[in-house]
Specification:
The protein is 40% helix and 17% strand. The protein is of the alpha/beta class. Helix 2 packs antiparallel against helix 11. The protein is globular, with a radius of gyration of 22 Å. The structure holds pyridoxal-5'-phosphate. Pyridoxal-5'-phosphate binds next to helix 4. The site of pyridoxal-5'-phosphate has 14 residues, from helix 4.
């Protein structure tokens, strides 16, 4: 499908911002939604809305089928089974759920390994467990990986940190600042070679929307992701839990819809994944997310990866022509997903975002919820452009031209 044709599916791209056509380059924060997703959700509310798994009436049955079909579509998209996929509010919600469940087995002195690159959503939950349980949070510094030509992931550092006390390794698949795609399959192989009981938690917020992801190939225990970053609606996301583990784990939230039997003396839980979904779920969200997955599948994730990587390569090439620009993360776009963060010496990232907004261009500026990484990079803030399947090289050229003009004002 041509980019021109794809763009017609996204009504918001027709908008003008400050009198200029919208150039939306903030896709890592949230992506735009095609009309197919919006219509699927509208259709659900107009024709099928009812509560799921409960009523013995036609609408409830229809809603249940739509919800469970959506689960199958989303699970298969990441190479999993429907029984392994829990619908949540998104990545943050999923990671907190994992932390709540895993903390039960954490004792004083146990160790959790994460990296300095993580989004706060994949950092603070582990920090809290460490504080509450007297565990030790070990943070891979990733210093080596910042230098050009160095390995993408400091495997030796990880190996040195692994110990008999390691219980959890939590890391992101794609950094939302550096853009680096980390070699999760190799990492999980190393970790499980050391001890197969260590739980590997992967934050897929930036990988699932941009590159093909297959949980079985990754060899991990948990994968978390957000619907709104992958053309789907806000308020819905996924938590994939390896089947054998999902069967063993005790739920993290209790109430209606997740039980088998309840009595005053004792309650028992429904089978997975239902035991992890207490309360009324976001059915319209699940329907919208499944439609987003179908849209991405129609294009093909290999093509999504190629398109967004090509845009990243073009942005890096053009940004490097400008004076005093520092690109964060690898210069080789092959090592990246479709996002590029940068800093320009002497100019604050917020000012860059401001002058670009006046030209109708939406980019991100700040710390992108990665304060430890920004501290490690000795930066207060950075600017980020991030791409989706509807972005074009022409838009990047317009962004560069507007940035060049803006810098004349800002310097
Ligand atoms: C790498 C990463 N992890 C986690 C999140 C949090 O996602 P959400 O706000 O959808 O829960 C984000 C969002 O930007 C992210 O980029």
């Amino acid at each position: 499908m041509s980019t021109e044709k794809i763009r017609k599916d996204f009504p918001i791209l027709e908008r003008k911002i400050n009198g200029k056509p919208l150039v939306y380059l903030d896709n890592s924060a949230t992506s735009q939604k095609p009309k197919q997703v919006i219509e699927a959700m509208l259709n659900y509310y107009e024709k099928h809305n009812a509560n799921v798994h409960r009523g013995i009436h036609t609408l409830s049955d229809e809603a249940t089928h739509l919800y469970e079909d959506a689960r199958k579509t989303v699970a298969e998209f990441i190479g999993g089974k429907p029984e392994e996929l829990v619908f949540t509010k998104g990545t943050t919600d999923s990671l907190n759920a994992v932390a709540l469940m895993l903390q039960r087995d954490i004792k004083k002195g146990d160790e959790i390994i994460t990296t300095v690159v993580e989004h706060h959503s994949n950092f603070i939950p582990w920090q809290r467990i460490a504080e509450e349980k007297g565990a030790v949070l070990k943070v891979i510094s990733m210093k080596e990986s910042q230098r050009e030509g160095s390995p993408d992931f400091p495997m030796r550092q990880l190996k040195n940190l692994l110990s008999k006390k390691t219980k959890i390794v939590a890391l992101g698949h794609v950094s939302n600042v550096l853009g680096t795609v980390f070699p999760v399959t190799g990492i999980s192989r190393e970790v499980h070679k050391y001890n197969k009981d260590i739980k590997i938690v992967v934050d897929g917020a930036q990988s699932v929307p941009h590159i093909p992801v297959n949980v079985k190939k990754l060899g991990i225990d948990f994968l978390t992701f957000s619907g709104h970053k992958m053309l789907g609606p806000m308020g819905i996301g996924g938590l994939w839990i390896r089947e054998e583990l999902a069967e063993k784990l005790t739920p993290f939230s209790y109430g209606g819809g997740m039980i088998n039997k309840v009595s005053i003396e004792k309650s028992t839980w429904a089978a997975t994944p239902h035991k992890f979904e207490a309360g009324t779920p976001n059915v319209a969200g699940a329907v919208g997310l499944a439609e987003a997955v179908k849209y991405l599948e129609k294009i093909g994730m290999k093509e999504v990866k190629k398109h967004t990587q090509d845009l990243a390569a073009h942005a890096i090439k053009e940004l490097r022509v400008l004076e005093d620009v520092r690109i964060l993360g690898p210069l080789d776009a092959e090592k990246r997903a479709g996002l590029v963060s940068f800093v320009i010496e002497g100019v604050h990232a917020h000012d860059i975002a401001g002058v670009l907004d006046a030209k109708g261009i939406a980019i991100r500026a700040g710390q992108h919820c990665t304060a430890p990484l920004h501290k490690a990079l000795c930066l207060n803030a950075s600017a980020r452009v991030s791409f989706q399947i509807y972005n074009t090289k022409k838009e990047i050229d317009y962004f560069i031209e507007s940035l060049r003009e803006g810098l004349k004002l800002l310097r």
